[in-house]
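Subject: complex prediction, re-run

Hi both,

The earlier run crashed halfway through, so I resubmitted it with identical inputs.
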Amino acid sequence: MLEIEPLPKEISDIQVEMEGYARGHGLDFFPTIFELIDADQLNAIAARGGFPVRYPHWRFGMEYESLSKGYSYGLQKIYEMVINNDPCYAYLMRSNGLIDQKLVIAHVYGHSDFFKNNFWFSKTNRKMMDGMANHGARIRRYMDEVGGEEVEEFIDAVSSIDDLIDIHSPFIKRREDRSRYSFEEKEKQETRPAKFPAKDYMDAFINPPGAIGTKKEDEEESPRQVPEHPEQDVMLFLLERAPLSAWQADVLAMLRDEAYYFAPQGQTKIMNEGWASYWHSTLMTRQGLAPGDLIHYCDHHSGTLAMSPAKLNPYKVGIELFRDIESRWNRGAFGQDYDDCDDRQERRDWDKQTGLGKEKIFEVRKVHNDLTFIDTFLTLDFVREHKMFRFGYNEHTEYYEIESREFPKVKQQLLTSLTNMGRPKIVVEEGNYRNRGELYLKHHYTGVELDLDYARDTLVNLEKLWQRPVHIETILEERAAVVSFDGDDQKIDWGEPVEVNGIDSLGLPNGGAS
Amino acid sequence: MTLKIERDQRRFQQIVRGKVRANLRKYISHGEMIGRKNKELVSIPVPQLDVPRFRFGDNGNGGVGQGEGEEGTPVGKGGQQRPGGQGEAGCDPGDGHLMEVDMTLEELADLLGDELELPRIEPKGNAQMTQEKAKYNSIRSTGPEALRHKKRTYLKALRRQISTGVYEPANPRVVPIKQDQQYRSWNTIDKPEVNAAVLYMMDVSGSMTDEQKQIVRTAAFWIDTWLSRQYDGIETRYIIHDAAAKEVDEQTFYHTRESGGTRISSAYKVCAQLFENELPPSDWNLYCFQFSDGDNWGEDNDQAFEILKEQILPHVNLYCYGQVESPYGSGEYLGHLEGRFGDRYEALITAELEDNDAIYDAIKTFLGTGR
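This time it finished cleanly. Structure:
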């Protein structure tokens, strides 16, 4: 844990001030602890995904190097980090000016409120600060016991599949938990047909052995499909079925916990940043800002919300959508009457003085995630006003190019890239493929092909965990294909050409929120 | 604060070194991949050490952006890695897939030594020469204005103002007076003098093309890197020749192209003169590297071998002859040289460089003797 150094007076004064404003607007947050640290420490913490203590791994070192290089060349600067934890921890960079700190503190209260109230965060571990430190201690102990390189290699392999989780499983019970140490099956085997009561010496005659053992072997042992239904939580499947030693299972379980902890942040990037930006802007411009600080504030604020053509800025889209929702619900610009109205002028001037805006945005921040947020609230008017477009890959020029500004296409594309957090959906189809204990995964194709090089490298890591050949069924170059790795060789079995349609014609892939 | 990011960083750097080492053959044959940052640092492109995950490729991929532009306006290049961080909304084309790693020349030399199994060189003789050098590492209260140390001056002025009670925190003005002035100053230190000299000789007659010179240049980079690591400092000299020879600087060495014939003996003469006048073999570890396409005037060979035998081979740690294959050169000199001297001189080493890929083996041959 960090040694807590009291905040300088001028900053703790700002904190008290901003916290008061935030409460006044109805924000409901965890107690929030601010720490002032210098750029190098901030980079180190950011490299570890926001946690000061985690397990040792080289990729944190890689991240740190890239962050500190970017910082020292003046290319990037982290203003703040907030951790979803109770109490909520936030880090401020020491070298920032006071107005920056003020803005950042306001922003942090927005995040803290979001963490506490958004439904998708409701199942996350709120003591993750300790959780991460414990994971670190346990993994370091394994490193001492079995050797650093061996543990590292295992972590490398697990990290390769740490996005193969079922982000909805915290909320839906899809099947009974299966413990590695379950004794259930044994008990079942012991259930026998009822015996007739008999004295000891008569037992063999009254209950002849043949009659008791009537159940047929093949009936009992009928090979059940493993898994019974395709399973999206590949990490869990491996945890239950892969031949892992005790420390390996523990490491895998820890990394899976961390993956589930981080998942809601990936699911709510636009909303979370939008909400925090909405609040820093509201608190600063309504209350926090002295007239002389305006220019500085505007400079920072506009820097945060800058747009670039090939990257959607979640801060920008988020804050604008929240403002749009607030304004529409204030004006009553929603519902059947509004939707049926075709007159542009009338729509623009629509005002029924409903004044429901604030209530609505608090509701939205409670129940939505990015996918449903965009699906519900992204309107034609919004897409026009913010000049949003859809871009796609042009095989001939090898460039990404603007394809369309049509509303349905833009929205469809945005939803697609938010589905499953922008990751391919991959499930375990069979854990005993060809009856040889091989692992068979299936990629649910939604119009975008997998990157073959990466898929191959991932299979190599997956094979290390499963220790038997692994396969993935997908579509490559518009043909069905099964990519395999058996521990020595890579192989692709080509199938039939498939009709590949763009995502347009597929409708919402996999029911949207797959 | 128990931030042990250094451990992760060290481990990462270790892995990067491993990658560089594994790809060293490629870097050796493509010297242009290595960028010179300054005197001591080079930057090397290594493939991004990404954790592989199942992810989308370019084919069929797309995203949503914001801004101006017609249909068909490009927004980013394909075929490159997109940052795969969790929760990227949309996807962002661009972002290079190679990362630059900074490395000191010493580290690079050590990697080279490990990979090629080069023995460390034992310097011959015990010629220890030292040289006085000025190093700016102290402070004085007088000196030229150009050397004024502003920060120290202001610190001293601030200290004076606080101690005399002139300083007002509400109006923090610090005005240095003459007694506050601080200047940088130097000390002289004895530095061991360079004690190895490398002489490059190259045939610049018409038959050597730019392609051959590139090979020479790449080989020379690695030779310099290794020898610099073995000695405190090295002196590098360049000699070009066609029918006549002269000593030139590095720039001229690689960029001169003459049209005359070829007399290798002329370069040997310049080399021998250098030994006599500037680089006495008793004080220096001498290394000669000669690159040519193997063309020489037939009647010149005898004279060349004579000088080589009498005035060069007895004095040098190494005399290496690298024959670069050229569409115009005859490539005969190598045969004559080997025929004349055979294995009788330990210092004489030859190698053939038919293309870039041969540099790796040539360097191993040249430097593998540990002389």
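The longest strand of chain B covers residues 130-140.

- K.
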